[in-house]
Amino acid sequence: MGLLVLVRHGESTANLANVFTGWLDVALSPKGDEEAQLVAEKLRGYHFDAAYSSTLIRAERTLDIIVARPAWATIPVHHIEALKERMYGDLQGLNKAEIALKYGQEQVDIWRRSYDVAPPGGESLQQTQARTVKFYEAEIVPQLRAGKNILIVSHGNTLRGLRMYLEHLTPEQVMALEIVTGGVHVYRFDAEMKIVETRNL
């Protein structure tokens, strides 16, 4: 049976500063490094056939920390554009609290949590999901069908979109889906790609 492990990167310096990050290429904070180390500890004993991250530094660094263990030194690692965070457009680099004061918290919540409303100049979750799922279906599903174990390190919205697809969540349900930095979610599939196990670590 194929195993898929989804990990959100550790806390970034932008998370710490409470700004809209999107495609800004920011480093992990010291806490983010610790969260990545904790993920590696949680995954101790797992075997992976391949590992993927987005091309943004915070995801790459998180994956680097995870696969630094000697047992995983030979895992093929791939950095994929399609796994990048949702593009936040005009909001990137701006403080979330200040934007809430300017536009109202309700509007900010719509930009951040809704499925089909894009922030100004940015992507909706629906658009982010489309590119993520296209990659997943083309590159990951064949490996899972073959019984391989795959690790993906990505971003909050990228993973929200993928989990929405895998778990058949509604737009209303995905609004409430929160994925914390350093969060780990495991799926196990049967030969027909039906989920037979799903859990957080």
TrEMBL record:
Top-level taxon of origin: Bacteria
Binding site residues for substrate: 8-15, 21-22, 58, 85-88, 96, 112-113, 156-157
Recorded catalytic activity of this chain's protein: (2R)-2-phosphoglycerate = (2R)-3-phosphoglycerate
Pathway: Carbohydrate degradation; glycolysis; pyruvate from D-glyceraldehyde 3-phosphate: step 3/5
Keyword Heme: no
Site positions (Transition state stabilizer): 155
Gene3D superfamilies membership: Phosphoglycerate mutase-like (3.40.50.1240)
Signal peptide (from-to): none
Active site: 9, 85
EC number: 5.4.2.11
Pfam families registered for this protein in UniProt: His_Phos_1
Keywords for this protein: Gluconeogenesis, Glycolysis, Isomerase
Task of the protein: Catalyzes the interconversion of 2-phosphoglycerate and 3-phosphoglycerate.
Stated family: Belongs to the phosphoglycerate mutase family. BPG-dependent PGAM subfamily.
The protein, known as: 2,3-bisphosphoglycerate-dependent phosphoglycerate mutase
